[in-house]
Amino acid sequence: MKPRTIITTDMEVDDMNSMIHLSLYLNELDVLGVIYTSSQFHFNGDGKGTTLEQVTPHYRTSGLAGLARPKKTRGPDPEGGKLMEFRPFPMGWIENLWKNSYAKAYPYLIKHDKSYPSPEYMLSITKYGNIEFEGDVRFDTDGSNLIKEYLLDDSMEPIYLQSWGGINTIVRALLSIYECYHDTEKWNDIYQKVCSKAKILGMFDGLIGQDNSWLDNRIPEIYPDIELLYPEYGYGAYFASIGSQKDMRDCFKSKWMKENIVNGTSALADEYHLMMDGRRIPGEAEIYQFGLTNKIDFGFPGLEDIVFDQYDFIGEGDSNTYIPLISFGLRGLENYTYGTLLGRLFTDEKDKPKGGNPFTGEGIRINPYIKAYHEDWAARIEWCYKEFDEANHAPVIEVEAKDIYVEKGLNVDLNTTIIEPDGDDYGCMWTCSYTTYQGKENLFIWEPWKECTTISIPEDARKDDYFVCTLRVQDCTIKPMTSFAQVIIHVL
Predict the structure, then answer these.
(1) SS3 294
(2) Burial state string for 404-434 with b = 16 or more CB within 10 A and e = fewer than 16
(3) Count of alpha carbons within 13 Å of 43, Cβ hemisphere only?
(4) What is the rounded CA–CA span in Å between residue 94 and residue 188?
(5) How far is CA 480 from each of CA 41, 256, 360, rounded to the nearest angstrom?
(6) Tell me, what DSSP letter sits at residue 313?
(7) What are the residues whose beta carbons fall under 8 Å from the beta carbon of 394, sequence distance 6 or more?
(8) pLDDT above 70: percentage of residues in the chain
(9) How far is the CA of 213 from the CAs of 20, 173, 176, 217, in angstroms?
(10) CB burial readout 13-41, b (16+ within 10 A) else e
(11) Which of 492, 484, 361 is nearest to 434 (CA)?
(12) pLDDT for residue 208
């Protein structure tokens, strides 16, 4: 079963890029809703003269003071409460994506995978949430009602709630459920259902996110068992061409982006925003019109402007919330310690290993899976305009046994069958990672470059230790695609 997910977004330029990129992976997910929301950086106002402080007294927006260079303040703008809107996002942008460029790609995409959702379906699930002000949870909206509906439906499958902006529309849904049921005999069952189903991604900076609504409305007190997820690694930050792991940096530079992504071959890919590509975003502040400049200036003390080449990558900061849901054969949603495309998932942000400096690249940890995802993007662009037999497709791996239970000290066979849908040559490699083993023996995989191999379980392994054995298979083509398979060996 595909992961069920709902996206909430405040439609900054990196959100736009994330949405375009995600469009190529809609076949991998069960997307239940795409919802406009607000944040401390973007809110559209109500057109009635209402000010932010009338709605959210504990606002966080840096407002107009945050647009000054150098910045006048790093915290909330003392005058920000008087704002009636701030950097309003273009209404209808998502609907236009589905109706136009996605619709043009769709007849080709379904030739590669029939499960791509139709433009009409994507339009039907695109809703407006609580967009008027930062942290605004005053009213139920179409967006919050959609979240509420799925949290209360009969299925007990998880729903991954993605916060690409403020958390307030998700908060409104949780509050509405609480207000409806907390004084009834159904509350305990409803509470257990919501906490079991809701998995929230995108809540960084402690529990605050991009507005104060999570804490202001006592969500941690009302739902103390609700689960927040934090991936081990990141992807697509604003400074990715200098601040990613070294084997990835060239993939975010203009040469790679123009050759593989925005190259005039696909209307969908050509929607993607690049540095100094000449496009203006309605409502956005001048200093954040990255399509009209070759530098990023966030105004942080001690951080100089970063100058880029024309057509370098801008950012996809919110893709961190959906990438872990795309399996590529990894099993990290079954058990968060097994790893996803963004590594392990943590339910406490403090447990995440420390990352490096995204502004300089210093200390960046190596994610062994993410380049496969990035290269897969380039191959899928061709799905937007090529027939099936003209494009590349990922190898298919069939695993004989996904979970193996053995005594310590034994040799274990890892057997798979690989199907290459295009008849391409391919290469294999087994690795063993994310193990609980703390003994002194070296793990030994016999002939790790073969699709069927053997691993020796150490004599000093303990009961209930496990070993995550991952097979990587990549086809040998100009635009390669990679699949993974994971076998978990459990020690009895």
Answers:
(1) coil
(2) bebebeeebebebebebebeeebebebebeb
(3) 36
(4) 37
(5) 38, 14, 29
(6) B
(7) 328, 376, 421, 475, 481, 482, 483
(8) 99
(9) 28, 12, 14, 6
(10) bbbbbbbbbbbbbbbbbbbbbbbbbbbbb
(11) 484
(12) 67
In this predicted structure, which of 171-185, 319-333, 355-369, 440-454 has the lowest mean pLDDT? Answer: 355-369
Give dist(CA 332, CA 321) in Å, integer.
14
Q: Which of 487, 335, 278 is nearest to 397 (CA)?
A: 487
Structure tokens at 368: 């062994």
| pLDDT at site 207 | 52
| pLDDT band at residue 206 using 50, 70 and 90 as cut-offs | low
Residues 33, 13: Cα–Cα separation, whole Å: 20
What DSSP string describes 385-433?
TS-GGGS----EEEES-SEEEE-TT-EEEE-EEEE-TT---EEEEEEEE
Instruction: Judge contact between 310 and 254, C-beta under 8 A.
Output: yes
β-strand 416-419 against 396-399: which pairing, if any?
A: antiparallel
The conformation of residue 29, written as its DSSP 8-state character, comes to S
3-state DSSP: the chain helix, strand, coil percent, rounded to 5?
A: 30, 20, 50
Confidence grade of residue 121 (pLDDT, cut at 50, 70, 90) = very high
* Single-letter residue type at 139: F
Residue 144 phi, psi (nearest 5)? -65, -35
**What is the reported pLDDT for 304?**
79
Q: What is the β-pairing status of strands 466-475 and 482-491?
A: antiparallel
Bridge partners for 31 per DSSP? 5
Please measure the distance between the N-terminal and C-terminal CA atoms of the chain and give it in whole angstroms: 29
Alpha helices in 80-166 (DSSP H): 93-97, 103-112, 119-124, 142-151
pTM for the full model?
0.97
Query: In this predicted model, what pLDDT tens digit does every residue of 443-479 receive, in sequence order?
Result: 889 999 999 999 999 999 999 999 999 999 999 999 9
- Cis, bond preceding 78 (omega within 30 deg of 0): no
- Do the strands 4-9 and 30-36 form a parallel or antiparallel pair, or are they unpaired? parallel
Token digits of residue 102: 């996605």
Look-up of token digits 């619709």 = 103
